[in-house]
Task: structure prediction
Amino acid sequence: MIGKRARTALVVAAAVGLAGCGTGSTGPEPVWHGGTPGPTPPAAAPATADQDAAAEVRLTFAGDVHFTGRTRRLLDDPESAFGSIASALRDADLTLVNLETAVTDRGTPEPKTYHFRAPKTAFAALRAAGVDAVSIANNHILDYGRQGLSDTLAAAAEADYPVFGAGRDADAAYAPWLTTVRGLRIAVLGMSQVHDLAGSWRATDTRSGVAMAFDPARATAAVRAARKQADLVIVFMHWGVEGNPCPSAEMKTFAGKLSGSGADIVVGTHAHTLLADGWLGPTYVHYGLGNFLWYGTSHSTDSGVLNLVVRGRTVVDSQFVPATVSGNGQPVRATGAGRQRILDRLATAQRCTGLATRRAG
Result:
């Protein structure tokens, strides 16, 4: 396989999202009436013969990243902030993570327990590690209010760094980031299903915020619109119950809606523990990638990198590379008994996913 340095990727558009951590997602689901699907883009041009031949493309995903506490000092040298795990992130055609922090030094803390923010050098560290774009659809992107979100979007634009899942209004928040890799047109959307402050943090037609799963009409319309623009549609979710390795009923229900709307790949973060993967009809789903570059020790240190190989719309191979969050917050590859323990834990977690172990058809 050819790694990132040998690939040619054309960035077509960027949209902005939100990140998450804090209390568990256990409250009643917000019900928002009057949600609108948003504009429908023109249909994509027919696939070329080369696209039909579908060269293999390697995708890499990892979990929650932020630069707070012990990980803040890693930005003293952005080029090495991710440590040795960066080689696993660079060795792919496209790499995505969840950025669990606002990039700002302004704003007023929101009424919540945990507040994360980072300097602009966060984007330099992500780029140096081989991360191509980040979801900001989570429960920390507005930790410092809409000023913090505005600053994050401005810093990303200044760095020419793609973010998705939050934006200046609902159209921007639900819009996909579009890129082309080896002739494969890829659309990536970010959405949150975290309940805390969801009502006040959601993006609307007249207000900035996060793309939320709690407006299912708009969420599924966004996936269908992306389907018309791309060969491969990826949805990066922020969801789950903290500490629970099993997906909740609302996660399973929404995964079904995403699959039915045309998502090819659904990956998730937020639970601060590893969940497992499988197939929902033709859609590959990984419910939770755990912590990655992580500030504290209050949650599971089990981590890892998810590698997928796709051909056209189909995931033809998947591999999870176990890692452990080290004492300075950097993930390092797990070996020996530690590696096997994580793989065994994932095998156990797969039993409660409700997902098939093989693709339908």
Notes: The chain has nine helices and 21 strands.
